[in-house]
Specification:
Elements (H helix, E strand, L loop, with lengths): L10 E3 L2 E3 L3 E3 L15 H9 L5 E8 L16 H14 L5 E7 L17 E2 L9 E4 L2 E4 L4 E2 L2 H20 L4 E5 L5 H6 L14 H4 L1 H10 L8 E5 L13 H12 L6 E5 L3 E2 L2 E2 L9 H7 L4 E4 L4 H10 L4 E3 L1 H6 L3 H7 L31
Parallel strand pairs: 3-4, 3-16, 4-5, 5-10, 6-9, 10-11, 11-12, 12-15, 15-16
Antiparallel strand pairs: 1-2, 7-8, 13-14
Helix pairs in contact: 1-2, 3-6
Bound molecules: P-hydroxybenzoic acid.
The site of P-hydroxybenzoic acid has 6 residues, from loops.
């Protein structure tokens, strides 16, 4: 077949066939209730994007303390689990495989959103500098977090397991651990944010321990082949830096090879959280890290159909995430297939609000194909 799009090849992930190589990557949209309970509006949104081969939910926080922002959904209460079910069903409407992203922000939180009003916690009492917290009334400085105690670390690891079990109960096929973008797991990995002197800090073995303990705990509740891990190896967004990023992330990727995971999800160097920037000077090419991983690789960040196809052709990626394109084009797979024009994202409504800028982007077809 001439000019056949590889994005429409199928692939088996975690024992489940995906109908295409197109991924809805995790996107924070802040439409849950103030208690982190998924809403009917979210059901509509995910249903509109059900044409993806793999749908990864927006970050779902594993405890109330794990959150940085209002109206982010959680996976820690019975009410949340019940409310996720129709959302997951909607996302599966057209045959997509659906994973929940498990999220803990660590030091990226703020006392104003902590349930007890206390300071957020991280691996070490090292504040984020050079960035400001997105509060409802505007940008404000980050606070110096409290250092997690060993028992608190154990509690958080347990909470990852409970959230994974809740994800399964809500109907998700698997979970993705958010170990990217300077959130809690990433804070443990990088020596700029992890100054601990116990067995969670110092050597690479110690800094990767938290990630491995989280994976082991989550693997008590679902098979490892249903667990994915997301990394942003080149990003220094939110002040995560390491004295040797290349060694750090090559080691992390190699270690993951032994675990039989669903996938490794890599964020491109040009992505700083939710924005596009020049690649940091010490960027590690995505292809270099992808080549170190034996299993399925998802690559996300600034791609369009042509560059996504190229990633598949080059063998850098097995699956490609299209975040911003999916925000504005709910039927993105259908548009790719028919080479239809794409809508641009409107900045209003990306974070929070109602249907405007969320579920009011038009589809060209009733559902993606
Ligand atoms: C965001 O809300 O801007 C955001 C959330 C999670 C990420 C990156 C950005 O991993």
């Amino acid at each position: 077949m001439e000019n056949r799009s590889r994005l429409f090849d199928s692939l088996v992930v975690g024992g489940q066939p995906l109908r295409n190589r197109i991924v809805l990557p995790p996107l924070t949209r802040s439409r849950a209730t103030v208690d982190g309970v998924p809403t009917r509006l979210m059901e509509e949104y995910y249903g509109q994007r059900a044409g993806a081969g793999l749908v990864i939910s927006e970050g779902a926080v594993i405890t109330p303390q794990a959150s940085a922002y209002a109206r982010v959904p959680g996976l820690y209460s019975a009410e949340q689990v019940t409310a996720w079910r129709p959302v997951v069903e909607a996302a599966k409407r057209d045959g997509a495989v659906v994973y929940a992203q498990l999220w803990h922000v660590g030091r990226q939180s703020h006392s104003s959103v902590q349930p007890d009003g206390l300071l957020p916690k991280g691996p070490s009492a090292v504040p984020i500098t050079g960035y400001q917290y997105r509060s409802p009334t505007g940008r404000i400085p980050y606070e110096t977090p409290r250092e997690l105690t060993t028992p608190e670390i154990a509690e958080i690891i347990k909470a990852y397991g409970t959230a994974a079990r809740n994800a399964v109960r809500a109907g998700f096929d698997g979970v993705e651990l958010h170990a990217a973008n300077g959130y809690l797991i990433d804070q443990f990995l990088n020596d700029g944010s992890n100054h601990r002197t116990d067995h969670y800090g110092g050597s690479l073995e110690n800094r990767t321990r938290f990630l491995h303990e989280v994976i082991s705990e989550v693997a008590r509740h679902l098979p490892s082949e249903r667990i994915g891990v997301r990394l942003s190896p080149s990003s220094d967004w939110m002040d995560v830096h390491d004295s040797d990023k290349r060694t750090l992330y090559s080691t992390v990727v190699r270690q993951l090879n032994d675990l039989g995971l669903a996938y490794l999800h890599l964020v491109e160097p040009e992505i700083a959280g939710s924005t596009t920037v020049d690649s940091p000077a010490d960027s590690i090419p995505t292809a270099e890290l992808a080549a170190l991983f034996d299993g399925v690789v998802i690559v996300t960040g600034g791609h369009d159909q042509a560059s996504g196809e190229q990633l598949l052709t080059d063998g850098t990626a097995d699956l490609v995430g299209f975040g911003r394109l999916f925000i504005a084009n709910p039927d993105l797979p259908h548009r790719f297939r028919t080479r239809a024009p794409l809508e641009p994202v409107r900045p209003a409504g990306v974070y929070g609000g109602g249907p405007e800028g969320y579920t009011d982007y038009p589809a060209l077809a009733a559902s993606g194909t």
